[in-house]
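Milestone 3.1: sequence recovery, worked example.
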């Protein structure tokens, strides 16, 4: 069954949603942990969501935008307060202003989501607690109960779709908006192994090569915030040399890093690349959100074969872990 009940209690200032599904609790958990899956049921059908960021660790932040049928936009965020894999997720859920900052004029809510095995599969129970009765009445008037029912009612289809989110699939690139692209892939290996593979020059020279026929003669890695990195590649015959430089803006081993990136020999603003890693069945879910300075550069890079080059590299990284498994 999908959503089995949606109830509100003005005295306790809560809204409770219960859903039962014929799948293991691990599968139900992954639907909330994977941004590709979460965005397929977080927004109502007529207001689909896109997750720009999804950082499922204590203190982590998620950011999403829902787009209405006439192009209206409503943005929000999560801040993770507590997490117990496959059992419990506690978040603060709030609204975002047009500039991406927290909207202080709108209420925030606390969501406690519990996951449990049942005789027929698994269940989640989501309890949203409002700050006060005024906030609760405001959000209910905005259609929160109907919206949550419609949104979470889409989970059946997501949970039934095993193939789209399984290990072994090639890299997927989703255009999130005019300037952002999200690349996602499950890579073999633990989260620690995948993190190390992005920070060990000897390992990086073996897999971060794009299509066959290239080498990486320069691999200077940044491991401390504020440090610069420099990567250069050339064809096996020494031709076609190119590279990228950038600065490490944030580093939270082994699950998140943020860095600028600019192609050597070019002027103008850099891209900002956010890498997040999360353990899942079959390996580690790797997500890279790339923010371009404008739509034109975004489209130029996508047309250059970026996705194929990234997939070739990650397929090679899979081979690294197959050898060491």
């Amino acid at each position: 069954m999908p959503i089995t009940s949606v109830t509100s209690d003005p005295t306790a200032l809560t809204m409770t949603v219960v859903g039962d599904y014929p799948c293991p609790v691990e599968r139900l958990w992954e639907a909330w942990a994977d941004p590709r899956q979460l965005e397929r049921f977080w927004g109502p059908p007529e207001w689909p969501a896109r997750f720009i960021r999804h950082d499922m660790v204590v203190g982590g932040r998620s950011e999403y935008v829902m787009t209405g049928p006439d192009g209206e936009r409503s943005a929000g965020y999560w801040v993770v307060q507590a997490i117990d894999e496959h059992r419990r997720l506690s978040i603060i859920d709030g609204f975002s202003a047009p500039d991406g900052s927290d909207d202080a004029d709108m209420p925030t809510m606390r969501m406690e989501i519990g996951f449990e095995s049942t005789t027929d599969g698994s269940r989640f129970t989501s309890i949203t607690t409002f700050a006060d009765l005024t906030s609760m009445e405001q959000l209910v008037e905005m259609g929160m109960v109907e919206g949550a029912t419609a949104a979470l009612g889409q989970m059946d289809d997501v949970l039934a779709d095993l193939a789209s989110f399984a290990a072994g699939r090639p890299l997927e690139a989703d255009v999130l908006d005019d300037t952002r692209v999200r690349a996602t892939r499950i890579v073999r290996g633990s989260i620690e192994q995948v993190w190390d593979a992005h920070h060990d020059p000897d390992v990086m020279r073996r897999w971060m090569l794009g299509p066959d026929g290239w080498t990486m003669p320069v691999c200077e890695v940044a491991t401390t915030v504020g440090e610069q990195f420099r990567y250069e590649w050339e064809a096996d015959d020494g031709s076609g040399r190119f590279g990228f430089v950038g600065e490490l803006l944030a580093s939270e081993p082994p699950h998140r890093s943020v860095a600028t990136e600019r192609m050597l020999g070019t002027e103008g603003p850099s891209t900002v690349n956010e890498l997040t890693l999360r353990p899942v069945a079959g390996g580690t879910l790797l997500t890279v959100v790339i923010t371009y300075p404008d739509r034109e550069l975004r489209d130029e890079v996508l047309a250059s074969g970026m996705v194929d080059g990234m997939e070739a590299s990650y397929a090679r990284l899979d081979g690294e872990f197959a050898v060491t498994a």
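DSSP finds nine helices and 16 strands in the chain. The chain has two domains: 3-164, 172-324.
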